[in-house]
């Protein structure tokens, strides 16, 4: 049984997806019989993210290719996810940094992508593709990326409770 009513559980939920409304919704539907049930509920709630939820959640994410500042569970998770990109590659990292700047200018927020399971080149390719999208399509894609990140994080954060 996964009890989502505790302060510790709410902190872990916030680390999975940093939107207060999302945390309240997922926590309020608990307890959950399994991690899979929690992930399913989190996924369903993430499919209803508002633009405000997206902005709030993205504020907790570092730029891709940059280290998260501070401490806490969300910072550790971001560092772990980006560490999976492999060793730094000067040319790719510079291109990602330039793309991040263009993205932020165009869309007004940090480029968000599920880094887990992707290489630096794949990240750059996705960044370049997404820069060509219209704002509404890109907002929808950013919400979907956030949903994917949350699902992975929920599984990792609550597996010990199962």
Automatic annotation (TrEMBL):
Coiled coil: none annotated. Its EC number is 4.1.1.97. The keyword Lyase applies. Pfam families: OHCU_decarbox (PF09349). Pathway: Purine metabolism; urate degradation; (S)-allantoin from urate: step 3/3. Keywords: Decarboxylase, Lyase, Purine metabolism. One of its GO terms (molecular function) is 2-oxo-4-hydroxy-4-carboxy-5-ureidoimidazoline decarboxylase activity. InterPro entries: OHCU_decarboxylase (IPR018020), OHCU_decarboxylase-2 (IPR017595), OHCU_decarboxylase_sf (IPR036778). It catalyses: 5-hydroxy-2-oxo-4-ureido-2,5-dihydro-1H-imidazole-5-carboxylate + H(+) = (S)-allantoin + CO2. Residues 5-154 form the Oxo-4-hydroxy-4-carboxy-5-ureidoimidazoline decarboxylase domain. It is an enzyme of class 4 (lyase). It comes from the Bacteria. This is 2-oxo-4-hydroxy-4-carboxy-5-ureidoimidazoline decarboxylase. The gene is uraD.
